[in-house]
Amino acid sequence: MRMVASAKLHHTQGMNENFLRYMNSLHSIMDSLRSNENYQNQQETLALSNTTQQEETSSYLNKTPQSNSIALITISSNSGLCGAFNSNIAKATFKEIESLKNEYDKIILIPIGKKIAQELKKENISYNPDFIELADNAIKEDGFNAIIKLANLLNTLHSNGEIQEAIILSHHFKSMGSQIITKKTLELSNATHTRNTQSKQQDQKNLLDSTSEFLTEPSQQELINSLHPQLINAELYGTILDSLTSEHASRMLAMQTADDNANDLLKELTLLYNKTRQQAITNELIDIMGGKTE
């Protein structure tokens, strides 16, 4: 199982790294278009007091939600034997649910993975069961269609005013020995994405230092509206790939630990067997020598 997990890890890690380059480029294009559009519409985009405010656009997705609800997507594995991978995400999910109850009237849970769905069922927490198998299906040839289905559901809920936002709880592959749980807010609204003040100021300064205008065909707003659904799909797909990579890394380490423990146990049992066998031979020799003397 360690060798199988290692092979799957290298496969998903390669997919994750390749897709990350695409997602970063897409983010860069969207940020450039939005920043340039904001510059053209408002000359005071560099004012420090307004950097945390979001400018509404005329996008088809940019409707103000009426209900105080949120969608929580949590990603686990479909199988066990991967250490504390599933238990950690379950603890983080229940903690996040308790935290969100203080802010929202309704929480729409969308589990991805059988293990987290089982934990939610044990606690009698209702959830959407349509995307439990999404993680395994995502890496298949036609798996991206399932990602689009989930993205369309979230967009529909948001545009209809049924949810204010959607957040994702998942593992992030930091290194072979470290997989950390991260919380990411999915950008359903086609407005400028909220980032920390310092990074946004620096991005605006760099943009205005280099160029203040882009020539685009069609218009910038049309490009933003066209690219925004792809950005949501990319965020979902990239997060699932990251979680799968973390799962295989955790399982490989768990199986390596199990292998080491089994080898240690085998050594102890072999030593015990040799001692017992030696003691039996010694007793027989003593009996033989005692009988010969008599």
Give the strand line-up of the largest sheet. 2-1-3-4
From the 3D coordinates, which CATH architecture would you assign?
Answer: 3-Layer(aba) Sandwich
CATH class: Alpha Beta
* Order of SSEs: HEHEHHHEEHH
Give your account of this protein's structure.
The chain has 294 residues and is α/β, with parallel strands linked by helices. It is built from 7 helices and 4 strands; from the N terminus they run H-E-H-E-H-H-H-E-E-H-H. The protein has helices spanning 2-41, 85-101, 114-122, 134-138, 144-159, 197-210, 220-293; strands at 69-75, 106-112, 165-175, 178-186. Strands 2-1-3-4 form a 4-stranded mixed beta sheet, with helices on both faces. Strand 3 and strand 4 (178-186) form a beta hairpin. Helix 1 runs antiparallel to helix 7 and helix 5 (144-159) crosses helix 7 (220-293).
